[in-house]
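Shipment paperwork, digital attachment
Item: protein structure file
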Amino acid sequence: MNILKELNTLFNSLNVPVETGIFSGNAPNTYVVIVPLNDSFPFNADNYPQLDYQEVRISIFTKTNYTKLKNKIITRLLGGDFYITDRRFNGYETGTGYYQYTIDVAKQYDIEEEN
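Attachment content:
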């Protein structure tokens, strides 16, 4: 499992369109873009990583009030054992009519061995 797969599943369950990196095509009134920020191996033993730490930025774009969606997302993230490392309102884009709110999240995973 990895953070992108988990977050895509989370947003699909909320019926929120989601893409990684940039939203392609015509943007709906509300959507989410996930941007990978960091992958690291914070713990090593015998020269082998013990955990895979992954961090992303979730950007919420909406033309309506973002508060309810933000709260739903945060509740789901906390229930899914994600670490919320930052949250912030990024403003209103007058040119596009979107409010933007970002949530930075991280999660650690066991190292997956390839078959």
